[in-house]
Design brief:
Length: 218
C-alpha cells in the first residue's frame, strides 16, 4: 500500500520528548504503519508492541470498527501511544474503550490529532479553502484528499473522517474514561514547519498533543 512520508516535524519532536520523559516499561503503539516511535523505547528500555491493520505490526487488528478487540489481557500496558489515528476512525470511541481496558489502573495514553481550529486551518477557511488535512473521507486523491491511501489493488483506504478541536478532543477522552492532561504545542506545519512550538499556543497548534490518564477508579 502507498504510504505517506512522515516529515520530522515539531509534532515528532514533542512526542519523542514526552515518551522519553515517561520511561514506561510496557508500551503499546497503535497505528505504527507509517511511522513508529519504537526507537524511543530502545532508549528507555521499554518493552514495545505495535498494533495496526496490516503488517509489519506485531498485532493485526481492525481499528475502524464499532467494537475493537485486541488479543491482550486486561491491564497489560503502562502506556499506549496513539498518534494521528483517531481522526481516521468512524468510531474512535470504540478504540479508546479498548485501550482503557488494556491499560493498568493508572496507565497513560499519549495521543495526538490534527487541530481543526489551528492557526493555519483558520487562515485556510477564511480564504475559502478546505485545509489539506481536514476530514475528506473517501474522496479521490485527485480532489485534494491528502489524507487517504491508495492500495496496491487500486482501491482506497479512507482518510480523515473526523475533525477535532480541543473541546471535542477532551469530551471524547472523558466519555471513554480518560482525563486529558496538558495540551502541548507542535507549532504550525503547513506543507513544511512554518512556526516552532514555542511561538504558538497549544490551542492554535497544527496538532493537539496530550497525555491522558485513566480516571481514578475507572
Amino acid at each position: 500500500m502507498e504510504r505517506h512520508p512522515v516529515a520530522r516535524t515539531e509534532r515528532i519532536r514533542v512526542t519523542e520528548d514526552l515518551l522519553i520523559g515517561l520511561r514506561a516499561k510496557r508500551v503499546l503503539e497503535i497505528g505504527a504503519g507509517d511511522f513508529s516511535f519504537e526507537y524511543c523505547g530502545r532508549r528507555t528500555g521499554s518493552a514495545w508492541v505495535t498494533a495496526d491493520f496490516e503488517p509489519p505490526a506485531d498485532i493485526l487488528c481492525e481499528l475502524n470498527a464499532t467494537c475493537v478487540s485486541l488479543p491482550v489481557a486486561d491491564e497489560s500496558f503502562d502506556l499506549v501511544v496513539c498518534t494521528e489515528v483517531l481522526e481516521h476512525l468512524l468510531w474512535p470511541q470504540a478504540l479508546l474503550t479498548e485501550l482503557h481496558r488494556v491499560l493498568v489502573h493508572d496507565g497513560r495514553l499519549l495521543l495526538s490529532v490534527p487541530n481543526v481550529t489551528s492557526l493555519s486551518y483558520r487562515i485556510a477557511w477564511l480564504l475559502g479553502r478546505v485545509p489539506s488535512c481536514a476530514a475528506a473521507g473517501n474522496l479521490p486523491l485527485e480532489l485534494g484528499n491528502r489524507t487517504a491511501y491508495r492500495r496496491a489493488d487500486a482501491g482506497m483506504v479512507g482518510g480523515h473522517v473526523i475533525d477535532f478541536n480541543p473541546g471535542r478532543f477532551r469530551a471524547l477522552l472523558n466519555l471513554c474514561g480518560f482525563a486529558m492532561g496538558e495540551l502541548h504545542s507542535a507549532g504550525i506545519f503547513w506543507h513544511r514547519q512554518v512556526l516552532p512550538r514555542w511561538m504558538v499556543p497549544a490551542s492554535l497548534s497544527s496538532n493537539l498533543i496530550t497525555i491522558a490518564t485513566k480516571h481514578a477508579g475507572a
